[in-house]
Write the structure tokens for this entry.
Amino acid sequence: MPVRTMRQVEPGRSRWTAAPPSRTALTGPVFRGNGEYDYVCGSCGNVLAAGMDPQYMTRRVRVKCGRCRTVNIAAEVSVQAARRPRPSEAG
């Protein structure tokens, strides 16, 4: 199964990256699915999510590695804060 490496969260980059992790991987993968990719820790290579599709591993998915305690983020693109359009911009 192809492997994708998650990015380490850099403290202070944005409010999304500063948020606490959604889950902690203690003894095995936090998420299991039927997709094509395994997601591993960006620091130690521990498997954090097994068999997941990219559409489920969004920029809001953060996992703390149980082995090295690194907080990882799944998104391959840089994290940007979400913003709702103002009523005047909505049209």
About this structure: The chain is about 10% helix and 30% strand. Residues 3-76 form one domain.
